UniProtKB/TrEMBL annotation:
Gene Ontology MF terms in the entry: hydrolase activity, acting on carbon-nitrogen (but not peptide) bonds
Bilayer-crossing regions: none
Positions of the Acid ceramidase N-terminal domain: 40-88
Species for this entry: Chrysophaeum taylorii
Name of the protein this chain belongs to: Acid ceramidase N-terminal domain-containing protein
A Pfam family of this chain: NAAA-beta
Length: 385
């Protein structure tokens, strides 16, 4: 394993601080009226893994150059070439399971190197997402814990709530601070099994995990970063040695295991090894089936469920039992707006307009906003302009 440390450690020296939109700069940034629905694609899980994503890749082949351009924002070209060469054989590592041949098929469809797709599946989660050194983005793990280091942070917010009839709604803003062109690669994916819809997830083209998702009639999920994960080299070594998965890959694995109850879903999300600490925000279909699951890499840390005195839970990027830093307090205004909304007025429209699109829940890093409701199969996402 030592050679991985040497090679990845050396390559990591090539990472530069990318310069993207700073955090908390524009309280008037519009979404509605200039937003769009994500692209919609389907993946047939009855196909061999190597064929599942080929058609998706082909549909976006003309935009595949954006993936390379993204990495070249913070990697010298020679370092990227070295990483692509090193990562190419990683897709055959047994710890990836079906994801290995899926990534190989995706690369064929996109007409890019397998190594680039592997890097994308790891680096979307493990490294800076288009922000400058002075404006770390807490949803794109950088190996830093914002609340332990100070400075400006970037946000992500997820909410699970009961309405007045105790139906469960789930709302989230994903704030990866992607560039305008790269946001064009955000897609909703319908995963098909036995000819019917199994579940739906939101992701980025080239990425086989799901960033949020819903199984109609059963449950929904989103994740927010916790402690911003670890450095690329460290996480890859752990993946190779233990078979740990990114939170988004782990979530998809749980969806496909198809727990039959919300309790079973929560238990499955609480188990298994992750590459990064994470908050899993989980929703069911009926009264009090909602919780924030705080995950360390190898264990569950805390469950924070809905109950008789708590009709909603709102999670950003900090442990709910700790105070949030003043420089990144999205919790207080988010909670205030939910309380002003009241349980009687919870629905898809109000969660979008009165919560997700309000400053600072919606901010300069926001890429996509989604509202899900497994009880009636609502799944609506809007990509920011």
């Amino acid at each position: 394993m030592g050679w991985w440390w040497v090679m990845f450690g050396g390559a990591a020296l090539g990472f530069e601080c990318p310069h993207g939109r700073p955090w908390l700069v524009d309280e008037t940034r519009p979404l509605l009226g200039s937003s769009r629905s994500p692209g919609r694609v389907s993946v047939d899980l009855d196909l061999p893994p190597s064929q599942r994503w080929v058609a998706v890749g082909e549909a976006y082949r003309n935009q595949s150059y954006l993936i390379t351009e993204y990495f070249l924002e913070f990697l010298p070209e020679n370092v990227l070439d070295l990483l692509i060469e090193m990562f190419t054989p990683v897709s055959s590592y047994g710890g990836f399971g079906d994801y290995g041949p899926e990534m190989e098929g995706y690369a064929r469809g996109l007409n890019v190197s397998v190594g680039l797709v592997v890097i994308a599946n790891l680096a979307y989660q493990l490294e800076h997402i288009g922000v400058s050194c002075d404006n770390w983005n807490t949803t794109g793990p950088t190996g830093q814990c914002f609340y332990k280091r100070g400075g400006s942070g970037g946000p992500c917010t997820s909410i699970v709530a009961d309405d007045k009839n105790f139906n469960v709604y789930h709302a989230r803003n994903l704030d990866w601070n992607l560039g305008d062109d790269l946001r064009g690669l955000i897609v909703d994916v319908d995963f098909i099994k036995n000819g019917t819809l199994f579940y739906t997830g939101t992701t980025v083209v080239s990425f086989v995990g799901i960033l949020n998702g819903m199984r109609p009639g059963f449950y929904s999920y989103s994740f927010d970063a916790r402690c911003q994960g670890g450095v690329l080299a460290v996480n890859l070594v752990e993946a190779l040695s233990t078979g740990a998965e990114t939170p988004a890959q782990h979530a998809r694995r749980v969806f496909e295991a198809a727990p039959s109850t919300f309790a079973g879903f929560v238990g499955a999300m609480a188990s298994g090894d992750l590459l990064d600490d994470a908050y899993y925000i989980l929703g069911g279909v009926k009264d009090y089936e909602g919780t924030v699951l705080t995950r360390a890499r190898n264990r569950a840390v805390d469950l924070w469920p809905l109950n008789e005195t708590a009709w909603f839970r709102l999670e950003t990027n900090y442990d709910h039992w700790d105070p949030v830093p003043a420089a990144d307090d999205r919790r207080t205004p988010g909670n205030a707006r939910m309380n002003n909304l009241t349980q009687a007025n919870v629905n898809t429209t109000t969660l979008f307009h009165d919560i997700l699109l309000q400053w600072p829940t919606f901010n300069s890093h926001t890429d996509v906003s989604c509202v899900m409701a497994a009880f009636d199969s609502t799944y609506e996402c809007r990509v920011a302009a």
